[in-house]
Amino acid sequence: MVSKLEFDYQHYGDGETFSDNFCSVLISSKAPVLESLRLRFSIDISAPVDIELWISIAYLHRVCELELDVVGPSSFKLPVNYLFYRDLDTLKLKNFVLVDCPDQDRHRKYYMRTLHLCYVNCKNDDSVANFLSGCHVLENLVVSRCRWDHVKTFTIAVPTLQRLEICDWNWNGQEREQEFGDYEINAPCLKYLKIKGTRDIRFRLVDQMIANSSTSDNQDLWRIRNFSLSYRSSLISEIAFPKYTIFHQLVYLELCTSQAMWCNLLTLIINTCPRLQVLKLIGCGWDNRKVFAGRWNTPKNVPECLETFVWNCCKEQQEKEKGVVKYILRNANRLKKARIIMKEFSSQERLKMLEEFKSVVKASNSSCNILVVE
User: Fold this and answer.
1) For residues 216 and 272, what is the distance between their CA atoms, to the nearest angstrom?
2) Cα within 13 Å of Cα(234), Cβ side
3) Which of 180, 279, 313, 344 is such that its CA lies 20 to 30 A from the CA of 40?
4) CA–CA dist 199, 202 (Å, integer)
């Protein structure tokens, strides 16, 4: 028998009652395997020693998924020495959790394959790097951050990582001189990467294996299959890719078109992803004057495998983006369907756009089916 348990301190009068009830329920449980355990508590009414006891009892029940949701204002310092339990597959840390992993703990090994760091407080850059380097079998990582984070460069160096989602709601404002928000990602097995945010964040994708590559056969180092920069994502013009990176496995690409120089980032990726099948350009309605600053460097060609194209069009940028869309329609020889989303346009405007794009497709001798929708 497998069970799922959830405990919320707000359902109890005080920390002692909460702790007693939790221990009583868990100790009396006859389930040989505890599938998931969610604990929502406040460190202001729960002693750290009690929390460590809860985790130990959960381990005795072979817990597979553990979620710690801490209510402020005080933070709970994560006991990293409690995380080496081999049966723990998923760990979710939320809100007022302090991740403090000093250099002397960087050689610890953790066995979870999925990790969520949702608005937690990391002590410094080294704590993040040390903690993640110990996750030697990690495959899925979700990072959500807010402005109380004390990390300047968030280093993700996980050789086994396959799926990465970053949601950064920090903003520079008056804190620009602090330069928070840099990411350094070294994950050669990554298959899915999604980035969302609202401020000027800089990403650097690196791969130490490049230094050891001497032939073109070794250039296929990044195995990203899905790449998404969406919903007003950060300053994507400052995302730096390794010089010889080839997105040879990329099949899905989504870009927000409201960011500075997104079109040249599109060119950079398209030139290195011959297997691309789906391309989505998402307009977010920001009138960013730097979007087409300078001359657009058109791709060498459009991937032969491209079958689906989606353009979410915004009135503020339609004329600036239309040239890119026409280039895709004109040069994607095997394109099967193109979907143009025009929510803020009249029926007459949509019809005019449809006829304009149909003429482009007809001139290219393509059999693409174009659909214009609200």
Assistant:
1) 13
2) 24
3) 180
4) 10
**Structure-block tokens of residue 45:** 């009414």
Instruction: Write the pLDDT tens digit of every residue in 172-216.
Output: 444 444 455 678 888 888 888 887 765 556 677 765 443 333 333
What is the distance of C-alpha 331 from the center of its chain?
A: 30
| pLDDT at residue 370, rounded to an integer | 86
The answer to whether 70 touches 78, Cβ cutoff 8 Å, is no
- Binning pLDDT at 50, 70 and 90, where does residue 41 land? confident
Instruction: Report whether pLDDT(59) > 80.
Output: yes
- Would the pTM count as exceeding 0.70? yes
Give the C-alpha separation, 362 to 240, whole Å. 37
Q: Which two tokens stand for residue 191?
A: 């298959």
Bridge partners for 197 per DSSP: 168
Question: What is the DSSP-derived secondary structure letter of residue 61?
Answer: T
Nearest to 34 by CA among 5, 69, 77, 68: 5
